[in-house]
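Extended Data, record Galactose-1-phosphate uridylyltransferase
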Amino acid sequence: MTTPPAADEHPRPATSDTPTVREARIRRHGHTMADGRELIYFDDIGSTLPVERAADTRILDPRPDTATMRRDALTGEWVSIAAARQNRAFLPPADRDPLAPASPTNPSEVPDAYDVVVFENRSPSFGPATGDARGGDPTESASVGLERTRPAEGRCEVVCFSPETAGSFAELSPVRARTVIEAWADRTAALSALPGVRQVFPFENRGEAIGVTLHHPHGQIYAYPYITPRTRQLIGSVREYGPGLAADLLASEQAGPRMILRGEHWSAFVPFAARWPLEIHLMPHRHLPDLAATTLAERDELAITYLRLLRAVDAVYDTPTPYISAWHQAPVHEHRDDIRLTLQITSPRRAAERFKFLAGSEAAMGAWIGDVPPETAADTLRAALARADAEHTDIPPTSPGSPQ
């Protein structure tokens, strides 16, 4: 085990253009797992957990080899063939939860008690090898060829929001939500500094209908060796429209009928061309390339705003709603003045007992058909937000992220 440094002693990698800020009251302790993977504890403000943590004493098999990416000659996109992921846990019982603090009967991935913890995925889609900083983005190759391959270099990390074996982000306290935000910002900066990483993507899959394999409240972070296809499409749109696309889009939504809430630093809305029955976009009011570039005040408001939005999603129906929550961040080395940080929450749930499945048009051709008018969805979410705010008393009306 690596001796945990004091919070202020740990190196703080930064993105290429933005100094990394940190909330000093959220303690950070780095450790090394039994097979060499990195693990980091993030302790809540006011946490009573001790600084010292138990070592990971398990006997583990060697880490799997780095997967191989194959390039689709028809689209130019890379596909990681990560066969080791077939062995990952699938909906284990609570007493065998691999993300819970370890116990004598459950030798989990986390050796000790925690508030929030981040660690390298045991069966990653990218990594454990990282690339060469001089290697460039493999997608930028101009030539089309057959059976092109490259190592799937990069990093995949797991972010545990709570030691509880069940629940969701919406059930966290505001203090715990703030710790998760700090962890996302910290890891975005650290992963952006790894050689060969081109884009960093924090996300959460929630609900069996989405395909989750663990009920434990958690998310993931992928550090890709290329710029993702979705971001490349956005770069093309900015190139065609101009660098003011994000600012103009936000101003248009703020003046329109699809707004859900507006705080001092963040606004949430249903987008004009929403694809999913429930879809929310959250954008900062100033240009930010990624979470590492946020100020402490922006993180404070984000923690409250994000909680309110997820609670609203759960208040639409009588049972919790599955969703994907995706942080779209600018690439690490380019387009950082063009691509604005945006959270996109999407759910396929179109009625209490009905879901939207990707059929022929969407899955095969990428031609989407919306089932619910975005204005109707915005009305539904505003009403759900009011119910959720009335139900939860842990966020006072004067908190950051309260409606303006």
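Summary. Confidence is low (pLDDT under 50) at residues 1-19.
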